[in-house]
Amino acid sequence: MTRTQVGIVGAGPAGLVLAHLLAQAGVESVVLERQSRAYIEKRVRAGLLEHGTVRLLKERGLGERMLERSLAHHGTELRFDGQRHRIPYSDLYGGREMRVYAQQELVADLVRLRLAAGGEIVFEAENVELEGIDSEAPLIRYRRGGEAAELRCDFIAGCDGFHGVSRPSIPEGVLTIYNDRLPFGWVGILAAVPPSTTEIIYALHERGFAGHMLRTADVSRFYLQCDPDDDIANWPDDRIWYELRTRLATNDGWTLGEGPIIEKNITEMRSFLVSPMRHGRLYLAGDAAHIVPPTGAKGMNLAIHDAGVLAGAVASWYAGEGDGLLAGYSDTCLRRAWRVQEFSSWMSWMLHRLPEDTPNRAYREQLQRARLEYVTSSPAAGASFAENYVGIEF
Ligand SMILES: Cc1cc2nc3c(=O)[nH]c(=O)nc-3n(C[C@H](O)[C@H](O)[C@H](O)COP(=O)(O)OP(=O)(O)OC[C@H]3O[C@@H](n4cnc5c(N)ncnc54)[C@H](O)[C@@H]3O)c2cc1C
Under 8 Å CB-to-CB from 73, ≥6 apart: which residues? Predict the structure, then answer.
């Protein structure tokens, strides 16, 4: 049996940032990850870092490669009726900027830096089970290369995402679950083509939402609204490019560069949140506790925020300052998570074509248009958008 202070389940952004911040506070941890290192360093997901996330990574010495390889962004574009409307979020929010940096690159950086610092990450840890989470010495059992292994710890951090084992280890009835499936899905593609824009584009068209996100100088990310139960087999490449060209078209002759599609899949859009984000000595962080619709690009940022709060609370406990911060962990994180839920939901409903069976659909479409016109024309509304999009400070 191995012993550590904090057993971290999951080597995503939440678990890895937590391991780093704990080590910097002199707290030991071991990270258990179900997948291989190669797999998590290739898994394509998010790509937009909030101002606060960039600052945290920079201040903690985790952002050197990210700063070298990413570009600062200062605005975004909303398109509707063939018109382009730029929201200069840095100007509207005290000069704060965002950065585009692929999640798998950040995960690779965090893994490399953690291993170089002598940290322990167990990859391909199978059949992870949590025991005694109500006790002062919880236990994690797992298998590695066919061998049974055990990790005894003071605390467990459940950073294993939406489908992990941590949240289901909490006894039934303890958690209040909030769950809302939106009636939209996204066909997400990664294409080997330079971006046709310097800033992220969100477009609402009568055929549905389209998004042009950024990744690198040679690779671009695009999203198209689809039915959440649609099958990716219904989306051959030529249909995808046709829909992107049509939905992103403008009246001023903007053109879309096209190239080979490297990856495509369908993502459903869900709001999910549990309260409290802890039980006994188990603390949930990131997607294990909450999922937001991807429209606002917030999931990874929220996960890293949770990790920062949890690291501070655990370090304070080991420093002999009592359990005040640990007791407040869930409320602190949920306050931000609900703000982000509200913004992501608001943005999703503003930018997607409403399904045919939406009650009072014609009226709701007019509300949607009023929101779009307000946010793109009023400096006050633009500033509120900017504060939420760039990452509200509280
Ligand atoms: C397909 C997809 C696309 C997305 N696109 C965007 C986007 O464009 N913008 C955005 O902001 N967000 C996006 N997200 C959300 C964002 O990626 C997540 O919010 C973010 O990854 C959360 O980080 P995390 O560390 O909490 O969880 P994760 O990144 O999910 O990490 C959890 C880790 O735990 C591991 N794990 C799971 N179960 C176990 C187990 N039983 N034992 C051990 N390890 C386990 C997993 O392998 C994983 O490495 C996307 C998510 C998905 C799934």
Answer: 97, 98, 99, 100, 199, 200
Predicted TM-score (pTM) of the model is 0.96
63 CB near ligand 1 (under 6 Å): no
Which CATH number goes with the domain that contains 199? 3.30.9.10
363 in catalytic set: no
283 catalytic? Reply is no
Please give the Cα distance from 336 to 205 (Å, whole number). 31
Q: Is residue 79 part of a domain?
A: no
Question: 160 CB less than 6 Å from ligand 1?
Answer: yes
Query: For the chain (length 394 residues), average pLDDT per consecutive 10?
Result: 96 98 98 98 93 97 97 96 97 97 96 98 98 97 97 98 98 97 97 97 98 93 97 98 98 96 95 98 98 95 98 98 98 98 97 97 97 97 98 89
Largest distance between two CA atoms of the chain: 66
8 Å CB contact between 124 and 36? yes
Of ligand 1's listed atoms, the one at least distance from the Cα of 265 is 1
Calculate helix-pair angle for 324-351, 379-390, nearest 10 degrees: 130
Which residue out of 186, 300, 340 has the highest number of ligand 1 atoms within 8 Å of its CB and is therefore the one to mutate? 300
Contacts of 314 (CB under 8 A, 6+ apart): 6, 22, 25, 27, 155, 326
Same domain, 150 and 259: no
Please tell me whether residues 23 and 157 are part of one structural domain.
yes
Domain of 232, in residue numbers: 182-269+354-390
